Amino acid sequence: MIALAFGLSACGHKESHPTVADNEGVYVDAGPISYQVQLSRELNPFSQEDRQYLIGTNAAPPKPDEFYFGVFMWAKNESKTPAPTTNSFDIVDTEGNKYYPIAINPQVNPYAWTSQTLAHLQTEPGPDTTASFGPTQGALVLFKLNASAYANRPLTLEINEPGVPKPSSVSLDL
């Protein structure tokens, strides 16, 4: 049995993961790329650590009934051919409210998630990068959520892969 598993992995077959996860940390497939939410949490713009994650955003600061929410992602191409990671994420609450990412300039923020083409077994963030060595070990997808999101839990991150009809999803901690 082990020899069969090794033989299949040696042939370049992609390891299969679910497309839906009930908690963070589980690998989910979205097209040819496997994604993992390393961590998600509210970000405090007055915290020394969190302020660094917010560099390079042009969004208006959160209103009194809003807050920043960071989803720190990791991705790996387990297919045999180069494939792009997605840049299409959203968060949905139990009332059906959708939240979309805030743009972050990756030229000034080394934690910013940026869609890129990954070679076979390549990861995002790449090894030896600030995002991979940082405390979250993932690249940041930043959202601004309404305070009502606390009452409308659980939140679900949708990973929308072009050409895939149904998004992959991960239930987020909040």
CATH architecture term: Sandwich
Q: Classify the beta-strand content into a percent band.
A: 25-35%
Domains counted in the coordinates: how many? 1
Number of strands: 12
Instruction: Give the biggest sheet.
Output: 5 strands, mixed
Helical element count? Answer: 3
| H and E order | HEEEHEEEEEEHEEE
The helix-and-strand class reads mainly beta
Distance between the termini: 41 Å
Net shape: globular
Low-confidence stretches: 1-12
Q: Considering DSSP H and I runs of 4 or more, what fraction of the residues is helical?
A: 10-25%
According to CATH, what is the class? Answer: Mainly Beta
Describe the structure.
There is one protein chain. With 174 residues, the protein is mainly beta. It has a single domain, classed as Immunoglobulin-like. Helix content is 11%, strand content 33%. The protein is built from three helices and twelve strands; from the N terminus they run αβββαββββββαβββ. The strands form three sheets. The chain has a five-stranded mixed beta sheet with strand order 1-12-11-6-7, with no helix packed on it. It is globular, with a radius of gyration of 17 Å. The model is unreliable at 1-12 (pLDDT under 50).
